[in-house]
Design goal:
Helix content is 52%, strand content 22%. By secondary structure, the chain is α+β, with helices and mostly antiparallel strands. Strand 5 and strand 6 form a beta hairpin. The longest helix is centred in the first third of the chain and has 34 residues.
Length: 141
């Protein structure tokens, strides 16, 4: 929190002060440097810290396969002895991008990495089946 306050101060107040003292180039330089720090370095730091936290808490987490099962009732996820079930009525939308298929459940999400599929056709078939089952569940309800 303190670092965000410091960056907000440096992004706003310091360039404004320099600007009002007619130091336009220096104001722009301070703003650009701090913007780069906030946009790139802090996001990289947060990802790194999050990854190291989970590796410390669950060191064997990546050694477990995750199974995703689609059925008429919903999506079942099995991982490391845990089971999570999302009924189709709770899934708000199914989103696809270049690397993920995301089941948006509103308060949470189930992320399915496309790296887990053998090829593009397999991930496309999975996505098509998920959308078909989700649509079928809406018709029945």
């Amino acid at each position: 929190m303190a670092s965000w306050v410091l960056f907000a101060f440096n992004l706003g107040f310091v360039p404004a002060l320099l600007f009002f003292r007619d130091l336009y180039l220096m104001a722009a330089g301070v703003f650009v440097v701090n913007a780069v720090i906030v946009i790139f370095l802090l996001s990289w730091q947060q990802k790194k810290n999050l990854r190291s936290y989970y590796e410390r808490v669950w060191p064997e987490l990546e050694n477990h396969d995750c199974e995703i099962e689609l059925s008429e009732n919903g999506v079942l996820c099995r991982h490391a002895g845990n089971h999570t079930f999302f009924p189709w009525k709770n899934i708000k939308k199914i989103i696809q991008d270049d690397s993920m298929i995301t089941f948006d459940v509103g308060h949470t999400a189930l992320l399915v990495s496309k790296r887990g599929f053998d090829d593009k056709e397999s991930s496309d078939a999975f996505l098509a089946e998920a959308k078909r089952l989700a649509e079928a569940a809406k018709v029945v309800a």
